[in-house]
From TrEMBL:
This is Glycoprotein. It comes from Rhodococcus spongiicola. The keyword Magnesium does not apply. The chain crosses the membrane at residues 763-783. InterPro entries: DUF6049 (IPR046112). The lineage of its organism: Bacteria, Bacillati, Actinomycetota, Actinomycetes, Mycobacteriales. Residues 194-219 are annotated as: Disordered.
Length: 805
């Protein structure tokens, strides 16, 4: 039994041994004012020692330090007693570590042993005692620098790891550090030191030590930022396209997301405000941003605007429904998005955040086209824009060899990948060739791993992307939302604060900022990120670089880079069972689509009718929500299992829908016995098509050898109608026969059920021919005999008794 699971101790002699044991355990912790006692990280220590207090960061002011912000850093937070006993004498203090000196350290510095945070402030008393389950809030303030008081002692711009440490005394234990919380503090410039006056002579050491310190803006970093608008698949699976029927959604969560205060509403609102002419006066943020829009989201929202229903059971898409209430919200959101898209860059994401590795494994031309070529053609007419073409942003941020080959075959393009997606990792912002030849190259623009990972952790549902190395993965649940936001701000600004060397900013040519495609940031978090990027642009640390510029530029090296596809990406990806299910149904859709007929008189085309089924299979291979859990064993948790189940359900529903389509075209059984008037009378049949589009079919006949059937060739059946078929037949037998009829597509796939017909002919067939021949022979014999007797003048026996008149 662990310490945390034991009941509260009673003050009795029987507990002396346990109390001594606890004291020994606590002695391994860091006491007030002591340094580290071992090389283990605080994460390791936390898993080995019982937890009594939980500390979380609620807010940091300022979120990013500039020359115009306050000269002090203020942290608000909460301390909660999560242990099994009271804790007394609770105090907190603020500490910092040296500035981050590498991109990798943006993550690893947050896992340092607390002793590495060697610049410390004074302890501030929080509470005399906290009982089990109680909590209290605190506020810490410490100057950035000061000549008279204790401070954080920050003398130059940079990104600094910060730690809030809480100490206390649990019952039956000694005073110890019981928890801490970490975050990054971006310092873009230093304001005038606290307490400094203008009385110091200009140029003196005193004045220099307290004067504002601006950043180095001699070589601004080109910045491009993608602003994703995507959602998990919501349309019910297995419902083909139609003209008048309302779409069906599996839930109504999207209505809340598009409404006031919802996730997608707030992401759009943040982008709208940040790029307003009165806010972004020079248009620099607008020029650097590009809306990255999931076409599946636009399809769903557009259909919602026309009215929709929600199924009562997502596993039964054709079952009972109720009216959805998000039509007005969808209409308003689309109108605002259209207005915003008119004045800034737009790209279409791969459909439904599909797993490109799984897509390449299925290897179907129609499915690939729906996933990668059709999205721009969906986004552009809905928003009335011309999106940037020849650019692909995989949701995983990675490509394996097969998916790279798939993109390469589509034509010259640029894909956006994590910097460690290629071997011999080049600097982020570089553009390299990952596959290609002289005429058709697939290039990759690289983004920083740490910055993208930090942005993915922002919001209500933090996630750890597949490209994050194992040594940089940790449980995001231990950090508060405010702390994770600070980490993202630090990671986004870090590259712009690096020292210049000979006029070239070290390790960098440009910066590509990429949040996750399905981002769970709220309005305030999104606005803070945009405000920080805007500050970088206004301060001169960064300069806008349109995405189209990245797409158009040539790679920095002519060599083809080798791709890296880590095992984590395979674990995070779509399971093979789903791929096999998608592959099986895709071929059936292809075969049925090839036999459907486009009729100018029918508003619904075959492609419109079948497109939702292709899209459903892409939704089954969506990476949405598969990395929601932040720990290193994310795929062992429940999120992936739930998504796997949803994917199998979607494939199953599509299978049922395709089965029903194939069964909707059939031969109607005539009933009874079919009687032919003669041996060459045609067979009359009726073929029925219950699909809303026309179809070309072939009639297959299984008849006895005595019946010769003429092939009538391909036949077109009208939408939701029937057609009579005349089948020429020649029967050489008068017996009753059973003939089987069925319909197939032109490539041989069975349609509907086989129908058996009992046929009876009035012809005598071979027997009649024998009788007729025998009678003819007898007639000739009798006539010849009479002529013989008459020629010889002999009376014929047949004339005996005959009297001539």
């Amino acid at each position: 039994m662990t310490m945390a699971s034991r009941p509260a101790w009673r003050r009795s002699g029987a507990t002396i041994l346990s109390a001594l044991t606890l004291v020994l355990m606590l002695s391994s912790a860091v006491l007030i004012g002591t340094g580290p006692v071992s090389a283990q990280t605080d994460t390791q220590a936390a898993t080995q020692n019982p937890q009594f207090l939980k500390l979380s960061i609620d807010g940091v002011t300022p979120t990013a330090v500039t020359t115009t912000t306050e000269p002090t850093v203020t942290v608000t937070g909460t301390v909660a007693n999560v242990g099994d006993r009271p804790v007394a004498d609770i105090a907190v203090r603020l500490q910092r570590a040296p500035a981050v000196d590498s991109s990798e350290a943006l993550r690893t510095s947050l896992d340092l042993y607390q002793g590495e945070f060697d610049t410390v402030g004074p302890f501030v008393h929080v509470a005399s005692n906290l009982q089990q389950g109680e909590q209290t809030q605190f506020t810490l303030s410490l100057p950035l620098r000061s000549q008279t008081d204790r401070s954080l002692d920050i003398a130059e711009p940079g990104v600094y790891p910060m730690l809030v440490n809480v100490n206390g005394t649990p019952d039956y234990g000694g005073e110890a550090r019981l928890d801490d919380a970490r975050f990054l503090l971006p310092v873009l410039g230093l304001p005038q030191a606290e307490g400094a006056t203008d009385a110091a002579p200009q140029g003196s050491d005193s004045a220099s030590a307290t004067a504002p310190v601006p950043p180095d803006t001699s070589n601004p970093v080109p910045v491009t930022m993608l602003w994703p608008l995507a959602d998990k698949p919501r349309l019910a699976a297995g419902i083909p396209g139609s003209i008048n029927e309302k779409v069906r959604l599996v839930d109504d969560d999207l209505a809340r997301s598009l409404s006031q205060g919802g996730r997608l509403h707030e992401l759009l609102a943040a982008a709208e405000f940040a790029t307003e002419p009165d806010v972004d006066r020079d248009g620099e943020l607008t020029d650097s941003m590009c809306l990255a829009i999931d076409p599946d989201l636009l399809i769903t929202a557009s259909n919602m605007a026309r009215g929709y229903v929600v199924v009562d059971n997502p596993a039964n898409p054709t079952g009972p429904t109720h009216e959805g209430d998000g039509s007005d919200a969808a209409t308003a959101w689309l109108q605002r998005l259209e207005s915003l898209a008119q004045r800034m860059c737009v790209i279409a994401l791969p459909f439904a955040q599909v797993d490109l590795a799984a897509l390449s494994t299925v290897d179907d031309e129609s499915l690939t086209s729906s996933a990668l070529l059709a999205p721009a053609d969906i986004v552009d007419p809905i928003l009335g824009v011309t999106s940037v073409r020849n650019v692909t942003w995989p949701d995983a941020g990675l490509l394996d060899e097969n998916s790279a080959q798939m993109l390469h075959e589509l034509g010259p393009a640029t894909t956006l990948l994590a910097a460690n997606a290629v071997e011999a990792t080049p600097a982020p912002g570089r553009k390299v060739t990952v596959m290609g030849d002289d005429e058709n190259a697939l290039d990759a623009a690289l983004f920083d791993v740490s910055a993208a990972a930090a942005l993915a952790a922002v919001g209500s549902t933090p996630q750890t992307p597949s490209y994050v190395p194992e040594q940089a993965r940790y449980d995001l649940d231990r950090d508060s939302r405010a702390a994770r936001l600070q980490d993202a701000l630090g990671a986004v600004t870090w590259r712009t604060l690096q020292k210049t060397d000979g006029g070239n900013r070290t390790g960098d040519r440009s910066m590509l900022i990429v949040p996750p495609q399905q981002w769970s940031a709220d309005g305030d978090e999104a606005a803070t990120v945009l405000s920080t990027v805007s500050t970088l642009l206004r301060s001169g640390l960064a300069t806008p670089q349109p995405l189209a510029t990245i797409v158009a530029e040539q790679p920095t090296t002519p060599d083809v880079a080798d791709l890296v596809y880590p095992q984590r990406a395979i674990l995070d990806g779509i399971p093979e069972s789903v791929e096999l299910g998608v592959e099986a149904q895709t071929s059936r859709i292809d075969e049925l689509l090839a036999t459907l007929v486009e009729d100018p008189q029918v508003p619904l085309t075959p492609k419109q009718f079948m497109a939702p089924l292709y899209e459903d299979l892409l939704r089954a291979m969506s990476l949405s929500n598969r990395r929601d859990k932040g720990s290193s064993d994310a795929m062992d948790g429940g999120a992936a299992g739930a998504m796997d189940q949803a994917a199998h359900t979607r494939v199953s529903n599509v299978t049922t829908a395709i089965d029903n389509m194939y069964q909707a075209v059939t031969i109607l059984a005539p009933g009874g016995v079919y009687t032919l008037a003669s041996e060459q009378s045609p067979l009359l049949l009726v073929a029925r098509n219950d699909l809303p589009v026309g179809i070309t079919v072939e009639l297959q006949v299984d008849a006895p050898e005595e019946m010769q059937i003429t092939d009538i060739g391909p036949q077109q059946l009208p939408p939701r109608g029937s057609r009579s078929l005349q089948v020429p037949a020649e029967i050489s037998d008068s017996r009753t026969m059973v003939v089987s009829f069925s319909l197939t597509t032109e490539n041989g796939q069975n349609l509907g059920e086989q129908t058996s017909v009992t046929v009876r002919s009035n012809a005598y067939g071979q027997a009649l021919a024998i009788i007729t021949a025998g009678a003819g022979v007898l007639l000739l014999f009798l006539a010849g005999r009479r002529l013989w007797h008459r020629f010889r003048g002999q009376p014929d026996r047949a004339d005996e008794g005959y009297q001539r008149p």
